[in-house]
Amino acid sequence: MVHKRTVVACLMLLLLIAGGVAWWRNSSPDFFAVMSTGESLARDEKYAEALKQYAMCLEMKPRDVDVLNNVQYVAEQATEKKDFDTAIDAYQTLIAQTPTAAFYDALGKIYGKELGDLPKAQAYLENGLAIDPANSAIIAKLGIVYAMTGNVDKSIELFDRAIAIDPTDAGAYFNKGRALRQTGRIAEGDQLMAKARQMDPNLETAPDPERE
Known about the structure:
By secondary structure, the protein is an all-alpha fold. Helices cover 79% and strands 0% of the residues.
């Protein structure tokens, strides 16, 4: 009797193993085939099409690290190629899977610097700041957005916060100087801009406000 039970148990185990192998054969190749197609499309710089393949992969394996790395690559390359629609879709895909301050920051930069959509830029940057309140780069970018929308006092406050966190950020000093000039504090603004240029010689080529 014991022997029969053992045989039955072994048979059941073999059936489970066979079923698992069959499942693996039916499902895994689909995932890897789709992933491979996406990677091939990305190599050919067909980023929008690659992203569609990666989206299918994430439906099969949500938050898969390799897929997310590929999506991030698409986002960065599409941004560099100025394919902003694809870059935005890619970053939104990343945020839906693993929201980080860096991804919100990237979207804020695209909307603010590249597309000139300041309300969306502000919204994404503030979402990023909610995740990482001490991120001086995001704080400084928000300062620029507020200055461009006319809320100069708020922008100066944000630049001060950024400088307090990272006193080596020449850009924050420079942009605070520009904001001060907007309020009529010309001498103080010029002094800060000069300090920023001493800190970062690359700012020597940045235009003065009156020349823009």
